[in-house]
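In this section we walk through a basic example: taking a raw amino acid sequence and producing a predicted 3D structure, encoded as C-alpha cells. The instruction is simple. Fold the sequence below.
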Amino acid sequence: MARDYDVHHRYADTTADFSLASSDGVRFYVHSYYLMAASLLFRDTFSDPALRLSSDSILIDYPASALVAFLALVTGETPVLNILEAHTLVAMLDKYQCTPLRPRLAYALLPLRQGHPWEVFCIASWLDEPELAKAAVGHMRRDEAYWKDETRARADPRFLAGLQRATSAVARMGSSMRTHEYGVHRAKAFRPLEEDEMGAEAAAAAPTGAPVGEAEDSENEGWTTLGKESGGRTSPIRKKPRRSC
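The resulting C-alpha cell sequence is shown next.
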C-alpha cells in the first residue's frame, strides 16, 4: 500500500514540478531547477530521461526538520540552526554534492561561532571556508584542549596546522593580554596552510573517517536506491518505482 504523506505548509505549492518526501512522512513540493542548481546529484538525476519520467517524487532519508533547513539553503534563505542541525546539513551537502551551498551554510553558521567555536571551526574546515574558521578562532579560549588526538582528527589538517601556527604566533606576543585580545590576535594570525607548508606531523593528523555520521537507510518498501556512492556508501536518495496504470 502506498504511504500517505502530510504536506509541509511552507512547501505546499502543488504547481511545482517535483517533490521530496522525508523519512518521517512529510512531502515538500519544490521546483526542480532549485535542486539542479544546488546539487550535482540531482542535476544528474533530472538529466536522465528514464529516471526523470519514472516518478515526480524522491524519498530522502532524512527527517522533515533536516529537509526544511536543506531547502532553505537550496532556495536562497538562511536557516536558523543549532549545532546538531549544522552537522546534519554538512552530511547532506556532502551526500548530494551541493558545493554551491557551502558559502550559504557558512553564513548560517556564524551565529554559532561564540557558543560552539571548535565545532564551527571543524565544520568550516570541512566546507573549506577560511573566513568562517577565522571567526570561530576569535572565540576560542586559550585553555581549551584542542590538541588531544581525538579532537585533532575532527578538523582538516590544513586548518588545524594554521590554528597551531596562529596560536604559537600569539604566544610569542606574551601571556599578559586579556582573553578578548588573545582571541582577536589569534583570529588575525589564522589562515589555513598550503600543502607544501605543512610538516609531516600536520599531514599525519588528517582525519581517517567521514566528519559526520551517516544517516540510516530507510526501510520504506517499494523504493529503490538512486545516486552515486559517497563516503563508501550509496547516497541516500531513493526513487519510487513507476506505478502501473
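Looking at the output, two observations stand out. Residues 70 and 89 are 7 Å apart (CA to CA). The longest helix spans residues 157-171. In the next section we compare this with other chains.
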